[in-house]
Amino acid sequence: MNNTLIQNIEKYALPFKNKEDLQAIVDSVGDSKYVLLGEASHGTSEFYTIRAELSKMLIEQKGFNVIAVEGDWPSCFSINEYIKSYKQTTSMDALKEFNRWPTWMWANDEIKTFIEWLHDYNKKAQSNVGFYGVDVYSLWESMDEILHLLEKNESADLEAAKKAFSCFEAFDRKPEYYGVSAAFYGEDCTDEVVELLLKIRNNRHQYKEGPETSLNLAVNSLVTVNAEAYYRSMVKGGPEDWNIRDHHMVSTIDELTNFYGPETKVIVWEHNTHIGDARATDMEKEGLVNVGQILREKYGEEKVFAVGFGTYKGTVTAAREWGKTVEVMKVPEGQSGSWEDYLHQAEGIDKILIFNNENKELFRDWIGHRAIGVVYNPEYEQYGNYVPSRISERYDAFVFVDETKALSPIEMGQPVI
Description:
Layout: H1 3-12, E1 14-15, H2 23-29, E2 34-37, H3 45-62, E3 66-69, H4 73-83, H5 91-95, H6 109-124, E4 130-133, H7 139-152, H8 158-165, H9 175-185, H10 190-202, H11 213-234, H12 240-260, E5 266-269, H13 272-275, H14 291-299, E6 304-318, E7 327-331, H15 339-345, E8 351-354, E9 366-370, E10 386-390, H16 391-394, E11 397-404
Parallel strand pairs: 2-5, 2-6, 3-4, 3-5, 6-11
Antiparallel strand pairs: 1-8, 6-7, 8-11, 9-10
Protein name: Erythromycin esterase family protein
InterPro entries: Emycin_Estase, Hydrolase/PRTase-associated, UCP036794_erythomycin
Pfam families: Erythro_esteras
């Protein structure tokens, strides 16, 4: 047992009893332009609700105006249209666009409550806060959206897009089929989609039909290029597919910043493994980079503020295999000697840690830190769910909720796998 670590936690931890206690994090953000809000799982209610409360405070007090999440651009754009009243629709209608597994990541009660707040806030404050997905998976959905937008704008680029996308028709909208064909048989569509992206980006300001059309086209084109590369590299193994994905997320954040202007402030919602600096984990030894690292390197640590999240025990929404039925699972008590274990042993229940020059050195020893994905098997978590980390180098702050509960998915019918 590391009694010194427990004592240091007790000395520097702030009690977390209600949402007002989150003000300490907001104050510590300072002049940062990028606030990265993590999660230790994709299926924990408290991680979503606490991120929502922090986001509200950052919007109201600090002028943050973009929320970028670990979700697909096309489906998240439906939320953006709803919260900005671009379409006269409902929160439920917007969430119905999340029809690809794992739907529960965004089609859940916690997100529904938050986007309704955003919708009302934009109306009352005459604001323009946006909500966008920055992930790379939506290859076919993004191609569909590009064709729809080009047709709606009666664009001369429509035929070029149809020709480029015809390359993918043989793969029956199955990314794994395309990945194998491209990686091992040289049957890829790289030239076609890159040429199309350049063409659309050069002509982006010609598209006027509908709000944010040029942005929508530009990012869907970026998704198409990077998703093609992602699926091509995925079947080979190694770090390349992960790195393509996280570089794509940063490129999309840059697109949003360019669209909104130089005063843009971005809140990022992603898993701890994306927002916590990879250089402070064993990911670095495997050749992996992530969003937190890339943003810090690109814009400077003073402009990026990363908040990690964790729990000791509870329940979580997840599935035992990719594409299988979602269920509520028990999250066992944190492994002995883990970060979660020491946070639990320290006095106080839920707590907040802010890492600064006074205490940073005290929390930089290597320690296991739990991570749960959309696929989870609690009985095996000791074999692969703990990421060796230097906590105070990985994050600028940490929110610990001792016992958490599973989030509440909204039933959307049979998801696409």
